[in-house]
Amino acid sequence: MAETVAPFGTTTTSGHLLASLEPLLREWLPRQRWFAGKGRPVTGFTPVAATELLPPDGRLGLYHLLLRVHQPPVLGAPSHPGDCYQLLIGVREALPPRLAPALIGHVEEGPLAGRTVYEALYDPRPADVLLEALRTQSRIGGLRFERDPSRQIREGLVARLMTAEQSNSSIVYGDTFILKLLRRVVPGVNPDLEIPLALAREGCGRVPAPTAWLHAELDTDSYVLAVLQPFVSGAADGWELALRELAKGEDFVAEARALGRATAEVHTTLARALPTVTLGQAQLGLLVEGMTERLEAAVQAVPALRPYERGLRSAFEALADLAAEGRTWTAQRIHGDLHLGQCLRSPSGGTAHALSSGGEWLLIDFEGEPARPLAERRMPQPPVRDIAGMLRSFDYAAHSASPPAPEWAHRCRSAYCSGYAEVAGRDPRTDPVLLRAYETDKAVYEVVYEARHRPDWLPVPLSAVRRLATSDPTLARETRP
């Protein structure tokens, strides 16, 4: 039986609290999967907000922190005020063994001296506090817990932290809801809430509709901090499902085609729900300029790209040439970081039938690429950018197999585009210049990422680079409807 949630606390004195935590956070933060500044020392912190959710005068205390982290700048990058992170810090006299993995450290000075602090999301009790605050639409200091009034949250749901590595943190409540807490936060409207709300208003069931959300109102800034959505019990991650089918030697064509239809449903709904714009020569010029600059930087960072630079650049030049001839494209709000891992396949007859319009694929995580500025992530873009990301994902899955299965990837790519055309009325392969430019831009990004973080994976995007840098029959075949 769940413990009764104690009354919520208030805004607290952040300076004194930080004095207790700073020595421990300097060591703990860089070890977290979601910490973006790895490889650079933490030089200091600036508190943005600190809210006491449970006073630490009893067995358990709980603090909500928004903390700006200062680090030396990346060489050649413009000065940056430091990333802001959301932390939930639990306070106990001592940790029970079940919470050992959550340990941050033992406080030696300041108002929490003598206490043990830990990552509170591992503990069901603090997780209950968050859900109860959302259920009752609480306001605590600058924190605003909001809920869709048409959706109910029942009490007594057992909380568990999802331990899979990700750039944020998620808590599942009784296989009914999942709460995604954003770790690195920026002021403004976050697309991970904005897009699902817009789709829900249009009745699109391909994305679980937000039930509740947490945001902070601080002076002139507003931060989206967390989103609660229905949990699709028994759903398979698209990436894991594709790898399982590959390992069994099974085809994935039918799933890829269905996923293409689901993607098109989301795109067509977004085009109705939110404004669209026309990209002419000036806008396309800026787009091509950005792609070219990223290529030049990538070539400097990864010498293995140099033999292909001219061919890759030709993909962007071809797009600029079409724009100069007067060709235009429609841009709209999109997913922004679409790949197999951002898709869920529900079990047959599962809860997704109540969520999706007669289908079983759902799209999740509309935050976009977290490393990109928020304003850029919210800009209308050609839908083919999402499509290019998914095509690259099929390629990654195929090269994860042993031995690699390039024909499997080709069949999936073809089926996905065909499924997309069945709903959208237009096959993305009929626009080969735009598709090639976005695939090239994505593959260049992948080369840099793998060279820095997973060198053993570098051959995967490099194989795509070789294809995209040429105009050989393989490219012609893959861009033909």
Q: How is this structure best described in words?
A:
This protein has helices at residues 14-28, 124-135, 191-201, 238-247, 253-273, 281-301, 309-324, 352-355, 374-377, 384-400, 406-424, 432-453, 459-468, 473-478; strands at 44-54, 60-70, 83-92, 103-106, 116-119, 139-140, 143-147, 159-161, 169-173, 177-181, 184-185, 212-218, 221-230, 236-237, 277-279, 329-331, 343-345, 361-363. By secondary structure, it is an alpha+beta fold. It has two domains: 14-230, no CATH class; 236-478, Aminoglycoside phosphotransferase (APH), C-terminal lobe (Aminoglycoside 3'-phosphotransferase, Chain: A, domain 2, Alpha-Beta Complex), CATH 3.90.1200.10. The strands form four sheets. Strands 6-7-12-13-10-9-8 form a seven-stranded antiparallel sheet, with helices on one face. Strands 1, 2, 3, 4, 5 and 11 form a six-stranded antiparallel sheet that branches. Strands 14-17-18 form a three-stranded antiparallel sheet. Strand 8 and strand 9 (169-173) form a beta hairpin.
Features of this protein?
about 475 residues; alpha+beta; Aminoglycoside 3'-phosphotransferase, Chain: A, domain 2; 2 domains; 7-stranded antiparallel β-sheet; 6-stranded antiparallel β-sheet; 14 helices; about 20% strand; globular; disordered C terminus
Spatial arrangement of strands, main beta sheet: 6-7-12-13-10-9-8
Largest sheet: 7 strands, antiparallel
Query: How many helices does DSSP assign?
Result: 14
Shape: globular
Whole-number mean pLDDT: 90
Radius of gyration: 24 Å
Going by CATH, the architecture of the largest domain would be: Alpha-Beta Complex
First-to-last CA distance: 58 Å
Secondary-structure-based class equals alpha+beta
Specify the CATH homologous superfamily of the largest domain: Aminoglycoside phosphotransferase (APH), C-terminal lobe
Number of domains: 2
CATH level-3 fold name of the largest domain: Aminoglycoside 3'-phosphotransferase, Chain: A, domain 2
Portion in strands: 15-25%
Count of β-strands: 18
Q: Helical proportion?
A: 25-40%
